[in-house]
Design goal:
Elements (H helix, E strand, L loop, with lengths): L17 H4 L5 E3 L3 E3 L12 E2 L1 H13 L4 E7 L4 E8 L5 H6 L7 E10 L5 E10 L6 H17 L5 E5 L7 H8 L1
Parallel strand pairs: 3-5, 7-8
Antiparallel strand pairs: 1-2, 4-5, 4-6, 6-7
Length: 178
């Protein structure tokens, strides 16, 4: 089995789209070096994912340090970032209250519930919040980045897409969890 040195270099060509770079094998460069990781955004929209997003999600999933996480795309730096962390004692109402009425967001929510058999369970919801009143450009950027971002968060069990609060009411969440 071949082994390549582990280091990152800037992309050798700006003609390749970020989505193509993720499928390329290590590329030989002058001097016996190999390009094994391009430091470019990894979604069709060109939006990257901040490492903090993945780390905080792992804390939510494994350690249950948070009830929810709200993510925002920072268009200035072209990156998904953590906007708000919900403490374990915060409720679903606290979560929905922190979503802006006129702006898109991604969020994950750790939903605890009791089954009909009286078993305590938990499911992690991924919520794509895209209100009708948000800007069209924002809706397009969030929609084109969603699948790639969601793949970074390993352990999502249920996905909801909501354009108004009624589409993510507690009744909807309970219905999707069971």
């Amino acid at each position: 089995m071949l082994s390549f040195p582990k280091f990152s270099l800037p992309p050798y060509s700006k003609d390749l789209s970020p989505s193509l770079l993720s499928f390329l094998p290590p590329l030989p460069l002058p001097g016996g070096l190999f390009l094994i990781e391009a430091n470019m955004a990894n979604s069709p929209s060109g939006i990257a994912v901040d490492d903090e997003c993945k780390l905080k999600f792992l804390e939510l999933k494994a350690k249950r340090n948070f009830r929810f996480i709200v993510f925002k795309i920072d268009e200035k730096i072209q990156q998904v970032t953590v906007e708000r962390l919900g403490q374990p004692d915060e409720s679903y109402d606290d979560f929905t209250a922190c979503l802006p009425p006129n702006e898109c967001r991604y969020a994950v929510f750790d939903f605890d519930f009791v089954t009909d058999e009286n078993c305590q369970k938990s499911k992690i919801f991924f919520i794509a919040w895209s209100p009708d009143t948000s800007k069209v450009r924002s809706k397009m950027v969030y929609a084109s980045s969603k699948d790639r971002f969601k793949r970074e968060l390993d352990g999502i069990q249920v996905e909801l897409q909501a354009t108004d609060p009624s589409e993510m009411s507690m009744d909807v969440v309970k219905g999707r969890a069971i």
